[in-house]
Design goal:
Elements (H helix, E strand, L loop, with lengths): L2 H17 L12 H7 L7 H8 L4 E3 L7 E5 H5 L3 H13 L1 H10 L4 E8 L5 E9 L5
Antiparallel strand pairs: 1-2, 2-3, 3-4
């Protein structure tokens, strides 16, 4: 293996480790199973949502407290650093970079919308977007 190929493998390994540090388990926090378990109507508070997902990318705050928050997948599951790096290295490393890009690149684009009631707890939520199935 050439020096350049070795450097690409080392960098991709490091980025994979860093990407997996978000949540540690690699659990999909955008899955409906996860969301239904953690966003319980009339129970889950705004503070708990911030603890789980961080600050929302968009907030619509109402005087009565019936707010709307929006998140994107990168905020919840973490940025796909490996996919971004593989785009850069695919041209430089040839087939090694392309193989890493195809096997590791995220193929989803989802948003989470949370609606709160006047008590500051979750009223309901929805997740929209694509999972990348079949692509």
């Amino acid at each position: 293996m050439s020096f350049r190929g070795l450097m690409v493998v080392l960098l991709l390994s490091t980025l994979t480790a860093c990407a997996n540090m978000n949540g540690g388990s690699g659990e999909d926090k955008m899955s409906m199973a996860y969301l239904k378990q953690h966003l319980v109507a009339n129970q889950t508070t705004k503070a708990e949502v911030v603890q789980m997902f961080g600050e929302p990318r968009y907030k619509s705050e109402q005087p009565d407290g019936a707010d709307y928050w929006s998140y994107n997948e990168d905020q919840i599951n973490g940025k796909d650093y490996l996919g971004e790096a593989s785009k850069y290295f695919s041209g430089m490393a040839g087939s090694l970079g392309n193989a890493a890009a195809q096997s590791q690149q995220r193929k989803t684009s989802r948003d989470l919308n949370i609606f709160f009631n006047a008590k500051g707890t979750v009223r309901n939520f929805n997740a929209t977007g694509t999972t990348g199935a079949g692509s």
